[in-house]
Each structure stands twice: as C-alpha cells, then as structure tokens.
Amino acid sequence: MGRLVRISIYALIILILYFWVTAIVRSYQNKSVEEENIQIADTLSLDSMSVDLTNIFADDTSALISDGDVVDGKIDYESLDKKVKEMEEKPVPAPSPKKESINTIGKSGHQQKPSVKPNETKLINASFRNGDGGQFKVMAGSYLLKDNASKMVKKLKSIGYKDAEIVVFNASGYHSVIACRHTSEGNARSAVAELKSKGIDSFIKN
C-alpha cells in the first residue's frame, strides 16, 4: 500500500510538471508567432514604401536625359529649350508679409497703450491729532518715572501729536501722558484708534 501511494504521488507530480512545461512552451510559441507577424507587417510596410519611392523616382527620371542619349546624340534640343523657357516663365512666389504685419501690430499695440496715471496720494485727514483744548483727554499711559513719560511725549510728537504733554493728577504720584484734548468725542475716538493701531495703549478720560 505504501508503494502504491508513493507511485501515485510521483505520477501526480510528473503530470503537474508536464502540464506546466507544456504551458510554458505554448506561451513561448505564441510570443514567437506574434513577433513573426510583427516582423512580416513591418517588412510589408517597408516594401510598400520602397515601391512608392521607386515609382516616384521613375516618374521623375522619365523626363531626364540619360547618358545613352548623350552618347547616341538623340537629344532634342528644341524640347530642352521649351522646358527651360517654361522654368523661366514660372512666377516666383512672393514672400508672405506675415512678419511685417506682426511687427506693425506690435508697434501699433505698443503705441496704443493707455497712459498710466501716477498713483494719486490720498491725503489723510489728521485733524484729530491737533487738539483744541476740550474736555475729552486722550490718555497715552501713566509712568512712575518722568523720563519714561518724556520718551512717550517725544514719540507722540514725532507721529504728529504736537500738543502731547505730561500731567500729574492730584495725589496720584504718576506722570500721565496726554496725547491731545478735544471738545468732540468723535475726534478723541479717532485719535485713540490711531494710537492703538501703532501699538500705543490709550483711552479717553473726561
């Protein structure tokens, strides 16, 4: 029984190997057939092209003079003269004026460009920087040291707040900086908004 099992296993292995080898051989044969077909198609296309070229050259050379004609003296000089005259009488095609038209279009387009107006500088209404001595005070900080307050006043004057000043309120002990004074609360708010945009903390005090 053991021998029969082994023999059957060997037989199965041989069959599997046989089918595998036959499949490989068939695929190889199919590839070779396809390559042969491709080569045949290429040769046919090349042959057709060569035939066309030979026909073209045959047509062109039919009107030419052969060496035998020159030796035998069979040249028809009258026909040659006619051909030469025909060649001379053929009109030479004039060059197309495309480049000139392109250049003229480019020049005209360059000339027709609208003149660019210079950027008009918008004047900023900075009237709120100049105070009118009103009751709305724009405060720009309070400092324990007078030197720090003086630096802030100098900074405010450099950006347009010419009426900036230092004030010490009663019993505060701090040097408060006033950027400007306005009778209009709207002008005071405008000044506060500008100072905050420049990184200076400010508020309105009435």
How is this fold's topology laid out?
Layout: H1 2-62, H2 67-72, H3 77-89, H4 98-111, E1 136-143, H5 146-158, E2 165-167, E3 175-182, H6 185-197, E4 203-205
Antiparallel strand pairs: 1-3, 1-4, 2-3
The largest sheet is: 4 strands, antiparallel
Sheet/helix structural class: alpha+beta
The stretches of 5 or more residues where confidence is low (pLDDT under 50) are 104-110, 116-124
Assembly type of the shown chains?
single chain
Architecture overview:
With 206 residues, the chain is an alpha+beta fold. Among the domains are: 1-60; 128-205, Sporulation related repeat (Alpha-Beta Plaits, 2-Layer Sandwich), CATH 3.30.70. It is 58% helix and 11% strand. It is built from six helices and four strands, in the order ααααβαββαβ. A four-stranded antiparallel β-sheet has the order 2-3-1-4. The longest helix has 61 residues, at 2-62. The radius of gyration is 52 Å and the shape is elongated.
Would you kindly provide a brief summary of this structure?
The chain has helices at residues 2-62, 67-72, 77-89, 98-111, 146-158, 185-197, and strands at 136-143, 165-167, 175-182, 203-205. It has 206 residues and is α+β, with helices and mostly antiparallel strands. It has a four-stranded antiparallel sheet.
Provide key terms for this protein.
four-stranded antiparallel beta sheet, 4 strands, 206 residues, alpha+beta, Alpha-Beta Plaits
